[in-house]
Amino acid sequence: MRRLSLRARVVLIAMALLVAGLAASDAVVLVALRKPLVERVDTQVAMAAGVLSAVPRSLLDQLAAGRPATDSPQVDGLYLAYLRPDGSTSLSLHGPEVPALPTLDSAAVRSRDGRPFEVPGWRVLALPVRSGDGSVVVAGALSQVDATMNRVLSLCLLFGGVLVVLLAGVGWFWVRAGLAPLRRIEDTAAAIAGGDLSRRVPDDAAPATEVGRLTASLNGMLAQIEAAVAARARSEEQLRRFVADASHELRTPLAGISGFAQLYRMGGAEIDATMDRIERESVRLTGLVDDLLLLAALDERGLDLRRAPMDLRTLAADALHDVRALDPTRPVRLTGLGAAPDPAAAPVHADESRLRQVVSNLVGNAIAHTPAGSAVRIGVGSAGTDSVLEISDSGPGLPPEQARHVFERFYRADTSRARDHGGGAGLGLAIVWSLVTAHHGTVEVATAPGEGATFRVRLPRES
After folding, report:
1. Which ranges of 336-440 does DSSP label H, i.e. alpha helix?
2. Phi and psi (nearest 5°) for 23?
3. Backbone phi, then psi, for 91, in 5-degree steps?
4. pTM given for the model
5. Which domains does the chain possess?
6. Contact at 8 Å (CB) between 89 and 119?
7. Cα 6 from Cα 421, distance rounded (Å)
8. Would you say 312 and 348 are in contact if contact means Cβ atoms under 8 Å apart?
9. What is the mean predicted confidence (pLDDT) over 121-136?
10. pLDDT digits (tens, 9 = 90+) for 270-286
11. What is the mean pLDDT of the chain?
12. CA of 34: how far to CAs of 30, 122, 155, in Å?
């Protein structure tokens, strides 16, 4: 059974149930049909037995004395007999066939209480005679009943056989048509296994049916699998690009350290200048490694943020002093959001040290990639349910197609803002995005060529 196809199994099970149902119905019909036929024979036997039991015993004796038993009249389908008290036959009328009767003495006849009984091929009734001793036995042959039953049984078997064959053929094609959606699902699965992740199961079945619901579920699952595979491919591509870029960025300071060490060994440089350059490259290398470790921690398990109530105005004021310390000649001012005159309260529940890292990267990015003397504005306040800190510069800006990628790791544009702040490695804004996201906030940039750039950090407002 397990080796058969689903279509064959369904048809076989349906045919087995059909045969069982036909057999049960035929049995009920035959039993219901035989009962009235037998009752009709019983009626005939009872009428004949009642008449014979009323015949006087003297007449019976005269009949028995005047005609030998071997010369009894022939009565087809009926057996009539008068019995002595001991059960022996004194007179009988019968045809070629005689029933196999049990011993019917007077006691046995009285015990049957006038009820018909059946022996093979006959219905029998025994009654005591009304005058004198002895009894009368009348048996009716069931040959007509059996013939009728055999004809009905033959018709039932013929009709049932034709019906089973016809329904088996119709059921085979009907089940085949019903399982067509499953074959389409099988074809789709085979195509997907072959690498075509864009294939979907045709949704031509009614949505309320089992096949329709299965099709919808499978197509939804396939869409998620395709999206997951595409995301994995993108992630692997980003990882390969990240490893390549990180290797390149790490090689640069290492090459500088190695070059200055070799130059000093050959006596081509002073020790103070050589150590100074080696130290600066070491600091650059350490910063790059720290940034990479931070991003790896954020990607793998997130940060253990030490949150506490604070106000973004504190970070904004410190950022103002940072700009003045980094470039005393650069104009810088502290405002509200959108250049409003006064900064507004911006309470948050956050890790202050991590947010200072965010602000430091944004400030360093604004100074490093705008011309000397370009103004910087630091805005702070609240907008709806968010507390907002924005850092705006008046540099060359970026076109929209490049602005969409500024938070990607190691992204390099083809303008004067070729790299963001972060050791020159293209990691500063990526760290900003990761740290803000870890605080359940968002960071965005508004920029256009020749109009500068505004980086806006939004964090949930602390009520």
Report:
1. 352-368, 400-403, 428-438
2. -60, -45
3. -160, 135
4. 0.48
5. 6-163 (no CATH), 196-302 (1.10.287.130), 308-460 (3.30.565.10)
6. no
7. 65
8. yes
9. 87
10. 777 778 878 888 887 88
11. 83
12. 6, 14, 15
